[in-house]
Amino acid sequence: xxGTAPAFTPIRFDNVIENYKEMAKTKPYLxxxxxxxxxxxxxxxxxxxxxxxxxxxxxxxxxxxLYARIWKRRTYLEWPGLLEFIGKKKGDQIDMDxxxxxxxxxxxxxxxxxxxxxxxxxxxxxxxxxxxxTTQILWPMFTPEENLAYNDKIQIDCxxxxxxxxxxxxxMEDQWVFGFPSQLCRTNDACEFTYRRKxx
Length: 200
What we know:
four-stranded antiparallel β-sheet; 13% strand; Muramoyl-pentapeptide Carboxypeptidase, domain 2; single chain; alpha+beta; 7 helices
């Protein structure tokens, strides 16, 4: 009958993965790869837009401070899931072996290859050799100069906010200190993340 809408079966699983699988049955473009890239892209653009709105409203210094605080808060929210993934729960003792596993989960989940480059009693250094958050999404949109200017405002404070919070939540901040000596976008090699044992 003209004007009658086609019949449909309601989809609701209260779960984004199951919804996606069901929709993909009639919309083949909704592949896993498409969904992961779409979610990463929208998160990155939202994050980029949020910082610039903060900067316009409060100035660069305050925006950087707020941006780092946002990432710190997000780290608190992520921590229980990271612990669960490595078989731990709140209140369990966490050591550097556990933190190494957590670092792997944290980066690899979003397509960032991470390698343990150095491990001694006093130092742990990771290299991350790609960063889709930056290289795949923002870098094609803006000039190298614009991208580096944005990076210089947010990157160091953001990473310290995350990984110093890791040490805090693991109860390891009295023994270890975080460092961020190298950036992929500056070296075309890798981002380096270090934990060094404090000397007393």
